[in-house]
Each structure stands twice: as structure tokens, then as C-alpha cells.
Write a structure and sequence with these properties.
Layout: H1 8-43, H2 48-51, E1 70-71, E2 79-80, H3 88-95, H4 100-103
Antiparallel strand pairs: 1-2
Length: 105
């Protein structure tokens, strides 16, 4: 096939068809890999989802995200829930004389 002789419309159509074929090829390969992995997991006595994190292990509760309680005064997209280590921006604000109440959302 001589691609240089095709017009823009034909090239765009060909490009669309190639992208579609690539996507379906990748989907088939993923499905094949998943089937192999599921068979191996079953052979070992497990489900694939149990091996790759399909849920919390037995006896442990799944953790959920916590709503943020504090926000950076100049950049509200930087938030902190109040759990774990204080972010550097919180430590800097506290060192500058602010309180956690000043940073509360």
C-alpha cells in the first residue's frame, strides 16, 4: 500500500481504523493474560482478585479516605486531614505563629 498517494480524508480514515485495531488487539492480549493469571491463581487455590488486592485481607477493615480539615491559606488545593505527619506547609504556618484553627476549612 502506497500511503503517499492517499489524500487527507483517506489517511484520517486509515488512522482511525489502525487506532481501533490497536485498541482491540491490546484488549485481547489483556484478556488472554488475565485468563492465564486466573487459571494459575485457581490452581494455587486463590482467586485472582484476592492475590492482586481485590479487597482488604480477612480480619482487617478496609480504610477509607478522610475529609480534609485544614487547607493552605494561599493554595486551597493543598489540604490535610489532621491525621498522620503534618505537611511542611502546616509546620511552616505553625512556626510563623498561626494556629490550626487559622488553617481550618
Amino acid at each position: 500500500m502506497n500511503l503517499t498517494s492517499l489524500g487527507l480524508k483517506e489517511l484520517k480514515k486509515l488512522e482511525s481504523e489502525v487506532q481501533s485495531l490497536i485498541a482491540s488487539y491490546e484488549d485481547r492480549k489483556i484478556a488472554e493474560a488475565r485468563a492465564v493469571l486466573e487459571a494459575k491463581a485457581k490452581e494455587l487455590g486463590f482467586s485472582l482478585s484476592a492475590l492482586v488486592g481485590g479487597g482488604a485481607p480477612k480480619g482487617r477493615k478496609a480504610t477509607s479516605s478522610v475529609a480534609p480539615k485544614y487547607a493552605h491559606p494561599e493554595n486551597p488545593s493543598m489540604t490535610w486531614s489532621g491525621r498522620g505527619r503534618k505537611p511542611k506547609w502546616v509546620e511552616a504556618a505553625l512556626a510563623a505563629g498561626k494556629s490550626l484553627d487559622d488553617l481550618a476549612i
